[in-house]
Amino acid sequence: MALRLAKLPDRTPVKVTLTVNPELNRMLQDYAAFYAKSYGSEETVAELCPFMLKAFMEADRGFQKARKDADISSSEEE
Fold it and tell me: What's the pTM value of the predicted model, to 2 decimals?
């Protein structure tokens, strides 16, 4: 039986750990504070970072073109 909805992609979270310098940490903390002030919802830096990284990568046209040209895009589109 063929369903209109394709099989759902793997949605298992992957934990990534990174170390940042003190200046970037201050910037991230400031961003979280501005986010809370703008939207009335406090979010931790850890909660914001995945969305920030995704927005950055989606806005990087050079990366998007290279990824398309190399045909290395993942099959998971969110």
Answer: 0.73
